[in-house]
Amino acid sequence: MTQLTVSASGSARARGAVDSVIASLPVSLAPAGADDNAALLGIDGTGDWPAVAAAGVRDGAAGLVVVRPRPADARPLLLAAHERGTAVVVDTQWSTNPIVPLAAEEFRRSAQTHGQLESRVVVSTAEPSQVILLEQLLLLRALLGPVENLALQLSTSHGYSATALVGGITVDLLAVRSDARSPTASVRHLTRAGAVELRLPEADTARPAHLHVTTPTGAVTHPTVYESAHRSSWRRLHALVAFGQSSDELEQWQAVSRVVMDHLSADHQTSTAL
Amino acid sequence: MTGVAKLGVGFLGAGPVTQAIHVPTLARLGDLFQVVHVMDVDGSVAQAVASRLRARHSSSIETLLRDPAVDVVAVCSPHRFHAEQVVAACRAGVRAVLCEKPFAMTWEEAALIADVSAETGVPVLVGAMHSFDPGWVALRRGWGQFAAEVHTVHSSIVLPPNSRFEDFATEVLHRPSVPPMDLHAPEAAAELVHAGVMGLAIHDLPLVREFIPAFDDLEVQAAHAVEPAGYQITLSAGGRVVHLHAALTDTWRPQWLLEAWSDTASARVEFTPSYVHAGSAIASLTEADRATEYGPERSNGYEGEWRELAGIVHGTATPVSASTLVDDLRFAIAIADAAAAVARETHGARQGVLQ
Question: A273 CB near a chain B CB, below 8 Å?
Answer without folding.
Answer: no
